[in-house]
Amino acid sequence: MSQETLSNLLHETRRFAPPPELAASANVTAEAYEEAAADRLGFWAKQADRLTWAKRWDTVLDWTNPPFAKWFVGGELNVAYNCVDRHVEAGRGGKVAFHWEGEPGDSRTITYADLQREVNKASNALLELGVVKGDRVAIYLPMIPEAVVSMLACARIGATHSVVFGGFSSEALKTRIQDADAKLVITSDGGYRRGKPSALKPIVDEAVAETTSVEHVLVVRRTGEEVATTGKDVWWHDIVDRQSDQHEAQPHDSEHPLYILYTSGTTGRPKGILHTTGGYLTQVAYTHHAVFDLKPETDVFWCTADIGWVTGHSYIVYGPLANGATSVLYEGTPDTPDRGRWWDIIQKYKVTIFYTAPTAIRTVMKWGDDIPAGYDLSSLRILGSVGEPINPEAYVWYREHIGGNRCPVVDTWWQTETGAIMISPLPGVTSGKPGAAMRPLPGIAADVIDDQQQPVPNGGGGFLVLNEPWPSMLRTIWGDDKRFLETYWSRFDGLYFAGDGAKKDEDGDLWLLGRVDDVMLISGHNISTTEVESALVSHPKVAEAAVTGATDPITGQAIVAFVIARAAAEGTEGADFVKELRDHVSKVLGPIAKPRQIMIVAELPKTRSGKIMRRLLKDVAENRSIGDVTTLADSTVMDLISAKLPSATD
Ligand code: 6R9
Questions:
Q1: Residue 647, Cβ neighbours under 10 Å: how many?
Q2: Helix (H, G, I), strand (E, B) or coil at 627
Q3: Would the CB of 165 count as within 6 Å of ligand 1?
Q4: Are 508 and 446 contacting, i.e. CB atoms less than 8 angstroms apart?
């Protein structure tokens, strides 16, 4: 039996130092780590001063009743004022807040002054519809400016928003409306996706018909397609457009509920993650400033996430706007009208900071290097990654083919629950290691521990935990304190357990190894799916890989891999290729990690936010009927993979 909690098989020696000019003018230097270590709460108080408070707080942190934290106790502020009005008051009303790009090619330029008028009008419309402070509002919209305006209008009047991703079913929308007891739903006739209008309103009608709390449905006209109307409907252009563009923002308590965002994790009933006001805005503003080195005067920031995910909340809306940034907001998919669309947008708006997910990076890698090579991407200076571990090879590809070998890549680890980035390089400080999220940010305390709650030594792997409360932490699961305690605070005494495995390398830097539920037990060794996937992706013909453990009579579990080949690669079928890949993994990680079986597939099952659903692959690998596929982005993917099964054994 091995002593380790989680094996450390992958050894990566490449290093990328920060570009000297970037380091010389970086927003945050290495001193921030020392400063925060010397006085963590003082450090966060200083960051809270980036915001404009109507009433200053009395106490930075109240942790007398853990894990129920209160940050900036007694303080009062208005989030919308901080994100919009104060920039206009400072004379920056003419600055662009969003370059919005519709999928069909239409666009809108929205300045901070425009945003202020729109948010004020929407706030007045919500009030006319009877929404008051403390009410919940469900937002089910495509990536159009009204999505941002709706969120800010809620924040302004103190209504708590619950954004539901526009790709979710009416059933998912219904349960979220019910759980939050939403009074209003904001939606649109539809949005554009893959070159055609995609309707949303019928989905809302179906959901709302089965709920009792909703009084009105506010509908934005986006596609102009015919929609059925119900007695609850109000058109956005009928009610919002005629409102006054003046609205005086009232301050709200620092712990006032800002939003609920449902996260399903990999299994189980969705959890309504609750975020509040002062601490949340402090940490999203600080991390956006620090991790992306944002220079609001010159940068153009683009986060490709959907507004329905936490990444969209924190790094499209609240962080960038609190910092007065100029951002890109794009409605559609990366391959409409062709696979160059994202690079075209970067070229058009001269994007300087680009933040996306490993799944997207691996997809564009699969499509081929020649596509981004056809565009001018020289405006870029920093690249970010979020959502999954980034495989070293995908990181290096991203750095080279998108970043022209000049831009640091920041791999940012965080969760819906943490609200903001927690572990990440600092682009002007850290020498990046491909695949590593590196260190907790200044002011954040994280560690990797074993099952006895002891920190693992350098070189060891285990459970990622957060040792101290942080400003943007979730406050509870909406309506379910007990589940909040059980889910996050019960496994280790006094620590927040994130559900992820991680390792500390020889220098003590952190590498994320995926969800601990996915860890495989092979002949007594705990092997992470991430390391085997990264080894597969390091083969030049492989674009993407997903790995799962399947029951095995000899080794307990055996490794089964699903691989997508790069489009331009040749000889990617048949037993020879499979053998080549098995040998490759064995060479990179050691014979213990050699997959028993490899299937070459065209697609992998992913959640709508792009995370691989290994649970479903395990069903295939163990020849079971396939489990719940309702959270899959494309439910036909599993049929394709299952059909591969008979010929796939090596
Ligand atoms: C922001 C977001 C959270 C889970 C998290 C982890 C995975 C996110 C990661 C990462 C490795 C990174 N994750 N970022 N794993 N490296 N840089 O994605 O929130 O949708 O709640 O997912 O995503 O497993 O626990 P959310």
A1: 10
A2: coil
A3: no
A4: no
What are the structural domains, with CATH classification, of the chain?
A: 539-647 (3.30.300.30)
Token pair in block for residue 89: 């008051």
> pTM of the full predicted structure?
0.95
Q: pLDDT of 214-234, one tens digit each? A: 999 999 999 999 999 999 999
Spatial distance between the Cα atoms of 598 and 578, rounded to a whole number of angstroms:
6
Is the CB–ligand 1 distance for residue 500 below 6 Å?
Answer: yes
Q: What are phi and psi of 104, to 5 degrees?
A: -70, -5
pLDDT over 60 (residue 468): yes
Beta-strand runs (E) in 471-624 = 496-504, 510-515, 520-522, 525-527, 542-552, 556-565, 597-600
In b/e form, how buried is each residue of 255-280, taking b as 16+ CB within 10 angstroms?
A: bbbbbbbbbebeeeebbbbbbbbbbb
Q: What are phi and psi of 107, to 5 degrees?
A: -145, 160
pLDDT, tens digit, 9 for 90 and up, residues 241-300: 999 999 999 999 999 999 999 997 555 689 999 999 999 999 999 999 999 999 999 999
Tell the residue nearest (CA) to atom 19 of ligand 1.
415
The pLDDT score that the predictor gives to residue 3 is 55
* Best mutation site among 266, 388, 503, 517 for ligand 1 pocket (most ligand atoms within 8 Å of CB): 388
- CB neighbour class for 410 (10 Å; exposed up to 12, middle 13-18, buried from 19): buried
Q: What is the pLDDT of residues 294-336, one digit of tens each?
A: 999 999 999 999 999 999 999 999 999 999 999 999 999 999 9
What are the CA-CA distances from residue 151 to residues 406, 475, 563 (Å)?
A: 36, 19, 39
